[in-house]
Amino acid sequence: MIGYVTLGTNDLARAAKFYDAIAKELGVGRFMENESFIAWGAPGTGAGVGLTKPFDGKPASVGNGVMAALAAKDKAQVDRIYKLAMDMGAKDEGAPGPRGDGGFYAAYFRDPDGNKLNAFVMG
Fold first, then answer.
1. Which residue from 19, 32, 94, 112 puts its CA 20 to 30 A from 87's CA?
2. Separation between Cα atoms, residue 119 and residue 35, nearest integer Å
3. What's the pLDDT at 100?
4. Distance between alpha carbon 114 and the CA centroid of its chain, in Å?
């Protein structure tokens, strides 16, 4: 249902390093890019993530309650993504582990701009 998620950044070069590393772990790379926008994913597949300097020229800010979830292939990949994010200066919002019933396993963190992300797997 979701085509892609776009998050704001005030420092595209810094944020790009963070998302390049996460995207590499997920097996994708950049597929669209200009001076104020970068998108990661693979054309013709599931949702991707885009980062942009806001079009209106005002500073990017974090939406309260907004989060982008990154689908991992297994629990080990959730763990690797979380560790990679922490190693790159992300802020912890919940270490990897089971959440509720039903086999939902997730880790939560904030990128260098404060955008909340999660890496998860079901089952």
1. 32
2. 28
3. 84
4. 11
- Token pair of 6, please? 């776009």
Q: At what angle do helices 12-26 and 75-87 cross, to 10 degrees?
A: 160
Domains detected in the chain: 4-54+67-122 (3.10.180.10)
Tens of pLDDT along 7-65?
Answer: 999 999 999 999 999 999 999 999 889 999 999 998 777 678 999 999 899 999 988 88
Q: Three-state SS for 41?
A: strand
Task: Please tell me the total number of residues recorded for the chain in this structure.
Answer: 123
96 and 80 Cβ atoms separated by less than 8 Å: no
The encoded tokens of residue 104 equal 């939902």
pLDDT of residue 70: 93
Handedness of CA 65, 37, 77, 70 (dihedral sign): positive
